[in-house]
Each structure stands twice: as structure tokens, then as C-alpha cells.
Amino acid sequence: MEEKKYVYLFSEGNASMKNLLGGKGANLAEMTTLGIPVPQGFTVTTEACNKYYDDGRVIANEVIDEIYEKMHELEKITGKEFGNVERPLLVSVRSGARASMPGMMDTILNLGLNDESVEAMAKLTNNPRFAYDSYRRFIQMFSDVVMDVEKRLFENLIDEMKEENNVHLDTELTADDLKELVKRYKALYKKEKGEEFPQDPKVQLIESITAVFRSWDNPRAIVYRRLNDIPGAWGTAVNVQEMVFGNKGETSGTGVAFSRNPATGENAIYGEYLMNAQGEDVVAGIRTPLPISKLQIQNPEIYKQFEDIVNTLETHYKDMQDMEITIEDGKLYFLQTRNGKRTAQAALKIAVDLVEEGMLTKEEAILKVEPKQLDSLLHPNFDETELKNTEVIAKGLPASPGAASGKIAFTAEEAKLRAENGERVILVRLETSPEDIEGMIAAQGILTVRGGMTSHAAVVARGMGTCCVAGCGAIKVNESAKTVEVNGKVLTSEDWLSIDGSTGNVYPTALKTVAPEISGYFATFMGWADEVRKLKVRTNADTPKDTMQAVEFGAEGVGLCRTEHMFFAEDRIMAVREMIVAKNEEQRRKALEKLLPMQKGDFVGIYEALEDRPATIRFLDPPLHEFLPHSDEDIEALAKEMGLTFEDLKATVESLHEFNPMMGHRGCRLAVSYPEIAEMQTRAVIEAAIEVKNNKGYNIVPEIMIPLIGEIKELKFVKDVVINTIKAVLEETGAELEYKVGTMIEIPRAAITADEIAKEAEFFSFGTNDLTQMTFGFSRDDAAKFLNAYYENKIYEQDPFAKLDQNGVGTLVKIAVEKGRATRPDIKLGICGEHGGDPSSVEFCHNIGLDYVSCSPFRVPLARLAAAQAQVKNPR
Ligand code: PEP
Ligand code: MG
């Protein structure tokens, strides 16, 4: 067997080797092949990283030997020598995963410097200040990034030095000062680590490479990977590259450039540079960089070369490039290039422009925009500059995107009242329940301590397009004292909070928001996505308003109307409660009679908003006690209103209490116990359809969906009630109407017996929220409490309630698809769990041949794009 190769010179690779060399390494190799001036070096592969972990977090000797070998070759290429005291070769060490990952290790520059080579540098450059400044920066970076010695300790030493010398700026320190500072840095290192600062460049190098591998698993990187759907198994590569210096004098400089404007997408080179500086000076804001267009005036020859290379790179990669350059003694180098990060607006403009310029096909362009990025186009965002200067006091789950500021409101009623008085509020709750709905509508944003990505707060907020941060365990809410404690601060209802539902960040102040702007590029681009995709996209909506919003975003029907959400409105909760506390069927029917016209009215509104599009109406699902008050005070008030005694009502509430309500008396079980509820709902669905058909001429084909089926006979029982009611209504009205009766597949037993269930069900809709909950055996509302420990211990990489667990839950879905189709080849198949709005889960749904996905209105554009991308990647 040929021996595995773990290290590649830049001249040995190319862009197609991204999985092995990482994005940065593959692009450095590609640029080398293209003849672009790149400081040379080598890449230690992602496989070496994986081996490091497999071997118990050590770099194997064979890999170390290969690194030394390549270092030797690099010495030949550069004519310099690693550790040499006359012509020292200095390198940078940087991480470089397949996808760019800002959560990982910082760069180490000037590696190879030691007490001797620093002197050589001083002589070679005739600039001892520069040499010692480079050395002290290296000691600081190496100690901080590789050896975990706090940066602050070094910064204290610089501050002391400046004080002693009575100067304010680092740049005012002389070569001798910096020489002395190096001594102090090394002493600090020895004190902290119990050994001398490593003088052997080989030791410096191997320690640094090890640190990059280690950083793949630091908590920041794990969080970043989870948010960006990057598998832990990819590993990171490490790039070792010859240093070139932009701070050697007035003919040297450093810069960053984009081939197009990353904020607007405008087709003009955009960038900044500084002469006589290192990249760090730009980042640290010590000096203000100049716009790259100035370079054209300052040095037209270099600018021309720069511009040519930028154009070559963009044409070569067929995408906007983000590049780092250095000019050393009048010679231009490209230190890296990559597809540039861009705002959503820019992403759309660039994708459309590249097609119009003939560089990309529509299919290729479809892959250039991240579906999740579309979120920021549909919701307000915080002002970037304000954000930069604001402390994050806590972080929760990014449950529903957008940005909102408001004063703290502790209850739904309070939120509603204060909002009516013109105040902006953030509703802060331990967790929300259906009773909070009006407060949730009134609030600018919702923050909960508990609950995961499919908790009530998350699902409802996403449906409304309201920003929500859920499961933010770092805040302590004292509901009776009306205080929030966070990070040692106590906040009251007079304090402002800002929450970012796209990052999960919480800020202790009011921040400015910027309204989203939708350009013509959005429509053009989404039109292309619609031309390409095979998967249909419906929406989860319970009100005419949400339905209309979704249709505007391109929804092709309602995939899930949760009828219970209609029951909480102020004007009907009383009738709902009467229905629940009814002592017998007669009382219950009376209450249901009151509900019927209201429920029918809701459906009329939804059908009208949909025009001819299909609507799946799901029958009542949650446990009944959710509709009842729980505190003695509220029970007392309700008893009075209903003409019952407190004891009587309290006893009813208690009798409805359940230990595991999620697995209790809910879903189709309600209709089995009280068929009259299903009767009323059927009547409302059918009468509304007839009415809209007659009045508006729309061809409504209602799809009645029975939830939480686990056994065919359950479905048969409820379906009989439904069919008999439909027959009765059609007879009474003399109308004709097409309709469908189907079920949700959200209990593992239903998936496994889907061939039987399909005998009675004309369609399946996968309720992957419950299916995930029941397959994993943990509750969607409580999982947030322990999932973090699972991420930290690498048991899970992702929240299975946000991203479909394809191995487990996905297998159940696939089984049900196969079995369902075996019984009923034309069975309609969709998904309506929250996964219907997650890009990778949408791709899965495409791949297994579902007919549609259904998601909350604000995620409809994202799902349309994800479905188109799935078709481009895997045509069906
Ligand atoms: C589901 O379980 O996936 C679903 C859509 O139903 P709900 O979230 O209302 O339980
Ligand atoms: Mg469900």
C-alpha cells in the first residue's frame, strides 16, 4: 500500500483538493498553479488533523517527519533557512478548514524568531525596532494562542513600559524599549509555564500546528459549527507560509480587498490598505487604512498588477473573492483568496449579475446564496456599528430571526397593556404557553429562559415573524419580584433589553434596528429557484394574516393549520373552557355550538387568502388543561364568570392534570374521547369551504388531518366521525365538494405501520417535532437544558429539533414513505415539523421524494431556495 501523504507543498495541490487541504490551502495551491505571486509554503492536511484526534490528541512521528521534510523543501524554494542566524526563514501558521470558520484559532505570525534570529532580522532589515517588535508580537501570540497564557498579562507589561517611558502609543516605544520588553515577556512566560520560551523553531512549529488541531474542538468552534452546519468529522488543515513583511518601509504595505463590494454587491473592487504596516495594525485600528483606489495614484504599476490578478481570480473562481495582499519592498504578494462573505443583498445582486455577465448558469447561481441568509432580508437587523460597541450579556438559542429592543415585560398581560400605551417591550418569560399569545403578539421580541428550538415560544414566534431568543439559561427571572438577574446585574421593567434572534445574543441596552430592504434582485433570483425546484413549499399558518404573508413569500398552500391556536383568542377562550369543563356531552355540544361559527369564520379567512391553493387543517391537538387557568386566583375569577364554585372548577382543573402531557390526553385521543369536537371542526372546515367556493368561485379541496395517530383503528374511528359529518353537511346543503382525509405521522409506531395507516389516509404529513421527541425519548421543551452538555461532549453536533436526525428519525420517515407508497402509490407526502424550514432537512425531503415541505411564513423563501439547491445537487 502506498504510504499516506499528510503534507503538501502549495505547488503540489489545487482547488479540487479542498476537502483534504481546506479552503485556504486549496486556494493557495491553485493560485500557485495559476502563477500568481504567493509566498510559498505547505499545508498539513485535514486527514492529519483527524489522525491527531484518532491517535489520542498527538501528532504522529510520521506526520512530524513529513512536516520537517516539507520545511526543508520550502527552505530550498525561498533560499532561507528555518532557525538560521543569517538568513532566517520566518513563517505564519494559520488554520484552514473546508469552510471558513471564524470561531477557530487566531493566526500566528513571525514564527521562527528567537534570541539569535531576531538579531539577524535587525541586521538584514537595518531596522532593529521592527525586528524586536516582530519578536515581541510573536512571543505574545504564541503564548496566548498556543500556550494559553493570557494576552492581558502581556498587555499589562506594555502598559507598564509606556508608563515608565512616559509615552502613550506602542509606536513611540524605541528599539531598546522593545528589546527590554522582550526580556520581560520571556520572564513572564517562564513564570507562567515553568520553562523557558522555546528557542527551537521546530518546537515552535510543531506546538503551533498542534494548537491549530486542538482549536478545531474549542467551544467557540463547536458552537460555530453547530450554527453553520459544519460536521466535526471534517477536521481542519494547517497552512505554514513564508512571512512577507508589509512593514519594512515606505515601499511595503498591506491590504485586504474584495473583487466586488461585499455590502452592496456593486461590481467594483473594494478594499483598504496601508503602507508600512502589518495586517495587525489595520485590524487593531491603530492607523486608519486608505481606500484601495488610492493605491492607483500612489503606485499605478503595482495597482495594475493587483487589479489584473483580482480579475483573474474572480473569473477563475466564478465568484466574488476576498483577498489579502502584502507588498514587500515593492513586490506584490497575494496571501490568500476565498469566496467572500457578503450581506444577503450583495449575495443576490452578485448571483444575478454573474449570470447576466455570462459567468454562471442560473443553476450555478442558485448555489451561491446561503438559504439561511435570506432571513436577514425579511427581518429587521441591528445597526452593525452599534453592535460592535455593545456587550453581549447572555446568549440563548437563535429561535426566531430578527432584532428587537424594548423594556422588560414579565407577563403577557403586562406586555399587552404596555404595548397598547405605546411602549416597546420584550416579553421575558421562564417559558411561554398558549395563554401568552396576545402578549407575544404585542411584544417586539420574546426571550425565554427555558425551551428549545421547537418550544412553544420558538414555534409561535417564527410563525409570527417575531424575533425570539429561547432557552437562555444565563438569565434568572423572578416573576413575582419582577426582576431579571443576568451576569451579576439586576434589571427591572424599567430597563431595556435588545435581543437578536439570528444569533441568540442578548444586550442590556436599547439598540437601533434597520428595516430590511427587498430589491428586484430578490424576485429575479427566487424566480430562478422556483423554475428549478421539484419540491413544493407550503406554510404552517393559523390565521388569514399569516397565510397572506406566506403567500406573498411564495407559499403554495397551507401544510399545517394548527386549529388550537385559534382557541386562545380573547373572544373564544370562554367557550373553549366551557367545552372543557362540561360535565356531559350535552353541555359540551352547547359550548361547541358557540365555537362553530367562530371556527368557520377562521377557515373562510384562510381559504380566501389562499385562493385556489390547498389547505391542510389539523384537528385539535394539545392537552385540554393547556386552555385552563392554573393559579387559584385565576381559577376563582373564571369560576365566577362561568357561574361555578371555586372548588368545583379547581377539582376539574386538577383532574385534567397530567404527569406527561406531551404523551397524555392529546391529539386524536381527544377526538376518540369526545367525537363531538371532531364533528364541530369538520363542520366548520366543510361549511367554510362550501361558502368560499360559492361566494368566490375558488376550488377549495380541504385536507383534514388527524394528529398523533399510532394505530390504524384510531384513525379509522376518527375518520368515520369526519366522513359521517361531511356527508351530513353535504346532504343538508346539497353542495358538492372534494376533500381529503389524512394523518400526521409523528409517532414511531405510525411510521412503522405506515402500510396499514395508508389504507385509511389519503396523505401523510410528517410531524417531525413529535416524531423527534418520541424517537429520542426526550421532550422538545426540556431538551435545551441538557443539549449543551451533549454538544460539549461531542455526543450530538446539532439540535435534532432544528436539524432532522437523518440517521434515526429520517430512517423512520423513509420507512413510512416506502410503506405508504406501497399501499397507496399516489399518496401525497409532506413534512410540517419545524424541519420543513431547515435547509439540510429540506434537502433530505427532496432526496427521499416528498411532495412538499411546510414551514412558517418567514421561512418560505428559504425553503424555496433550499429545495432548488437540492434539485441542482441531486436532480430528481
Ligand atoms: C409536529 O409534531 O411536528 C407538528 C408539526 O405538530 P406540533 O408541533 O403542533 O406538535
Ligand atoms: Mg405534533
Automatic annotation (TrEMBL):
The keyword Nucleotide-binding applies. The keyword Disulfide bond does not apply. The active site is at residues 456, 832. Residues 62-289, 303-354 form the Pyruvate phosphate dikinase AMP/ATP-binding domain. This is Pyruvate, phosphate dikinase. Mg(2+) binds at residues 746, 770. Residues 520-871 form the PEP-utilising enzyme C-terminal domain. It holds the Pfam family PEP-utilizers_C. Its cofactor is Mg(2+). Keywords: ATP-binding, Kinase, Magnesium, Metal-binding, Nucleotide-binding, Pyruvate, Transferase. It is an enzyme of class 2 (transferase). It comes from the Bacteria. Its EC number is 2.7.9.1. Substrate binds at residues 562, 618, 746, 767-770. It catalyses: pyruvate + phosphate + ATP = phosphoenolpyruvate + AMP + diphosphate + H(+). NCBIfam families: PRK05878.1, pyru_phos_dikin. Residues 423-504 form the PEP-utilising enzyme mobile domain. GO terms for molecular function: ATP binding; kinase activity; metal ion binding; pyruvate, phosphate dikinase activity. InterPro entries: ATP_grasp_subdomain_1 (IPR013815), PEP-util_enz_mobile_dom (IPR008279), PEP_util_AS (IPR018274), PEP_util_C (IPR000121), PEP_util_CS (IPR023151), Phosphohistidine_dom_sf (IPR036637), PPDK_AMP/ATP-bd (IPR002192), Pyruvate_phosphate_dikinase (IPR010121). Belongs to the PEP-utilizing enzyme family. PROSITE patterns: PEP_ENZYMES_2, PEP_ENZYMES_PHOS_SITE.
